[in-house]
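Tokens for chain A. Residues wanted.
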């Protein structure tokens, strides 16, 4: 008896709803979110300031300057305002054989196509599509390790950002390998 009464009430509720009962003259079949929006406190939560799960973008990007709880690198794109902090960024990776090997592996994958095997700017892509500079110039040798790291991470000019492909410490290993190609002592 109770079961049939519940089923009858549910069928009656579903059939009894019409387009005129929905907010803004909804011209589609109402969904669960529409039903919840009719309950006052759910409606407030649905349109609240703090959490808007129905709005794009989801998830929301972190507030600028936020550092993950687990730590992480602060974003320092190459801009005049960031240059002092970029230049002060020190390479935490010692230039060991292991570091140079890892740096060469990443360099060969991401840098060699444009900058060439020895860094002279004569990579196979460079001759056909664009003009990548030599990393052996005096100007490139004067760049700080922090600047080279930021350059690899964020890119500049026609050079794309590789921060999403060359991760964490591997960027510092690429800097060490670049310094080896440049013949710059540490």
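Reply:
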């Amino acid at each position: 008896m109770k079961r049939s009464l519940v089923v009858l009430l549910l069928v009656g509720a579903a059939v009894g709803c019409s387009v005129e009962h929905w907010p803004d003259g909804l011209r589609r079949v109402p969904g669960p979110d529409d039903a919840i929006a009719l309950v006052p406190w759910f409606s407030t939560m649905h349109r609240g300031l703090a959490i808007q799960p129905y709005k794009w973008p989801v998830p929301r990007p972190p507030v600028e300057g936020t550092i993950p709880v687990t730590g992480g690198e602060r974003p320092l794109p190459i801009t005049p305002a960031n240059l002092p902090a970029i230049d002060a960024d020190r390479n935490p990776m010692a230039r060991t054989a292991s570091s140079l090997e890892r740096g060469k592996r990443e360099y060969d994958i991401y840098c060699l196509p444009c900058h060439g095997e020895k860094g002279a700017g004569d990579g196979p892509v460079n001759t056909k599509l664009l003009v990548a500079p030599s990393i052996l110039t005096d100007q490139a040798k004067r760049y700080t390790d922090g600047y080279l790291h930021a350059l690899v991470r964020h890119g500049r000019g026609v050079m794309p950002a590789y921060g999403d492909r060359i991760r964490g410490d591997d960027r510092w290993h690429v800097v060490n390998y670049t310094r080896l190609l440049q013949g710059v002592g540490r």
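The mean pLDDT is 79. Helices lie at 2-16, 32-37, 40-46, 83-88, 97-115, 138-142, 145-154, 168-182.
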